[in-house]
Each structure stands twice: as C-alpha cells, then as structure tokens.
Amino acid sequence: xxxxxxxxxxxxxxxxxxxxxxxxxxxxxxxxxxxxxxxxxxxxxxxxxxxxxxxxxxxxxxxxxxxxxxxxxxxxxxxxxxxxxxxxxxxxxxx
Length: 95
Description:
Elements: E1 6-12, E2 18-25, H1 26-31, H2 35-38, H3 40-46, E3 50-56, E4 62-70, E5 76-83, E6 88-92
Antiparallel strand pairs: 1-2, 1-3, 3-4, 4-5, 5-6
C-alpha cells in the first residue's frame, strides 16, 4: 500500500518497544494537536525516548523524514530532518 498525502509516526521506548504507530492526513497533522507529539507529559507517561516521522506528498513520494530523541521528562533533546532534496538539518535542545 502506497501512502499518499499523510504523515506516519512511530514512537519507541528506550528498550525499542513500539509505543505508537499512527498515520495522519496532512491537513490533520498541521491543524490539530497530537498529544504524543505536542506534550512532554504524554511522552514521559508513555516512556517515549524516540520518535520517527515520514511525510508523503499527494503522489506518495517521501517529502521528509525526521527522527527525534527525548529525555525521561518527555522534553525534546534533538531532532534530525532529511528532506526530499537530500538536505539534512540537525537541531539540539537543552532540557
């Protein structure tokens, strides 16, 4: 099955246990709040230590891929983004 016009996310514990896998239509991704993405408390409650996301355009092409790491508190520690054009950006945050 080809994914089109969606964002797919997967969240894992430090033991590499899958906590959540979810697919959102792009309009929902940008217009709504998603607790596991937007809430430090929710990530801490679920013991999320990493999350990956893939964004597909309406043709099913991968537009970007991102990978985040989180502290035990749920606060974001780092983010790496790869884009369709081959560029990559790294972000580091203080918790």
